[in-house]
Design goal:
Shape: elongated
CATH topology of the largest domain: Fumarase C, Chain A, domain 2
Radius of gyration: 31 Å
Distance between the termini: 60 Å
Number of strands: 6
Bound molecules: arginine
Structural class: mainly alpha
Helix content: 55-70%
Number of domains: 3
Strand content: under 5%
Length: 458
Amino acid sequence: MSKDKLWGGRFTQPTDAFVEEFTASIQFDKRLYHQDIRGSIAHARMLGKQGIIPQSDVEAIIEGLQQILQQIEEGTFDFSISLEDIHMNIESRLSATIGEAGKRLHTGRSRNDQVALDIRLYLRDEIVEIVSYIDLLIDALLKQAEANLDVIMPGFTHLQTAQPILFSHHMMAYVEMFKRDSARLEDCLKRVNVLPLGAGALAGTTFPIDREYVAEQLGFSSITRNSLDSVSDRDFSLEFLSVSSILMMHLSRFSEELILWSSSEFKFIELSDSFCTGSSIMPQKKNPDVPELVRGKTGRVYGNLMALLTVMKSLPLAYNKDMQEDKEPLFDTIDTVKGSLKVFADMIREMQLYPANMRRAAGQGFSTATDVADYLVRKGLPFRDAHEAVGKAVAYCVENEMELTELTLTEWQLFSPRFDKDIFAAITVEACINARNVPGGTARERVWSEIVRCREGK
Ligand code: ARG
């Protein structure tokens, strides 16, 4: 009945039962209970300090809220759909428990600034946790790179063998991506960590509130500067969803590679049994379910970004009920990103390699052809001419079903008189790798110094 509602004063008819359920958000926003209570305690303290409500009420409110917190954590709190959302469930219980004082809590505040506060508090903690999960994944990658520093594998472009590289170099490529993801999250956090409370419904409040004091209590680094913006801004969530989408894109590329590499055709790696499943019909199967699922879950994270962008599109200022739709995509992305990072770090740590298979593949597919051309350049031939000569040598090898490393000196000299017997040492895969001794290159010492740099937290 509208009489039970915190906003029931101007209503004469009760809310339709289905509408009540349709408009409620308690089913999913109950996960904000902790933030809602923290925010209310800070707000109550400020109201007391400013003399807006009596100090004895502040004490009753804090005690009442702490009891509610305990009930929710013990699972004895009854959430009610007719009380719509977490804010009204808690406030209404508070008034029912402590009476008058509870009814003073909402002075100078609206659910519009309250919900913005709760989301910011929640997201702030989640970002810190996600960054720590990224750190764990980076650590697992660094361990693999350190333990397998010298393992050689083919590097690909177009998924065709391109040039030999170190496996550790490949792992370090992902370290770079995840470090950027982490930096993007830290940057996003700066814009999340701003206090919106005090905006009221949209225009501010008539009470002499102290926003800086609330910000200080809740650990916000600053306060928002415009009340309309404070209650209608969700770009901090959108930014998080964008950053998360990029992070999942990285995980999905890595997943794809792990799936390929663990196939019997590649057989570069073996994922631990605990990250794979079998088939109900084919007894030989060991399916890389975890990377497949992470690749698949990337879709829902992109979808969540699109969902919120679309919800926010064209909304007039300030708050609109549409914005209640912001929470599920946000929560789903947080859960998905955390789950994916956690499982990935463990999977990478336990991944086993087949170095001999990788090494063999690295020597196939004319992977050293660029180095033959570079060799001719060092002997004085312009690069374009060298490219042409080596192209002919490759065609000769294709014709005769052989690799470049199998050509004799006489055969080499069919393509250029500049070939000499030092060609053989110049085109071993090890030589090709170590010759790429430039910053960012795959030479052993370059990869090692990158590992050291990352270990030093740089
Ligand atoms: N449950 C609402 C939400 O999540 C809280 C804000 C409601 N404000 C309002 N004016 N109806 O958006």
